[in-house]
Design brief:
7 helices; five-stranded parallel beta sheet; alpha/beta
Length: about 140
């Protein structure tokens, strides 16, 4: 399968939390060539942001953060340039009142004619008519 990988899924490759088993299975299958993963080129930045937030929450240390981020970057998805996605992302963000970063992933899914895979249930509920599926659906 071909998916747009959301940072909430890639984050689970680094930090063990709910559904990390599904995220890691996806990663293993990506490494085996079973899945094609794509993402806007903001993914490394968003993952870095999530790790530094986890540091502030005392869920991991600064050195762990760098190691985990580096590990994720050993098997990154194919990156899609964000700038060309901006007009569509802005339209979705303005219309649906959802953050622009999330809308870049949605715009990428539309452009690539595939589904966006996320662990963000709130986002799925906010954008019910868009090509977004929950990470949990891979467990079925």
């Amino acid at each position: 399968m071909r998916y747009i990988l959301d940072s909430s899924v890639a984050f689970k490759w680094g930090l063990n939390e709910a559904e990390s088993d599904l995220a890691n299975r996806l990663r293993d299958e990506f490494r085996q060539g079973i899945h094609e993963l794509l993402s806007p080129d903001i993914l490394p930045i968003e993952i870095g942001h999530a790790f530094t937030r986890a540091e502030r929450q005392n869920r991991l240390t600064q050195s762990q953060s760098l190691v985990l981020w580096s590990d994720i970057m050993t098997t990154p998805p194919k990156f899609i340039r964000s700038i060309p996605l901006m007009p569509r992302a802005l339209a979705i963000s303005s219309q649906m009142r959802v953050g622009i970063y999330d809308c870049l992933y949605v715009a990428a899914a539309e452009l690539e004619c595939c589904e966006m895979l996320t662990a963000d249930e709130k986002l799925i509920k906010s954008l019910p008519d868009y090509p977004i599926i929950p990470l949990s659906s891979l467990g079925t």
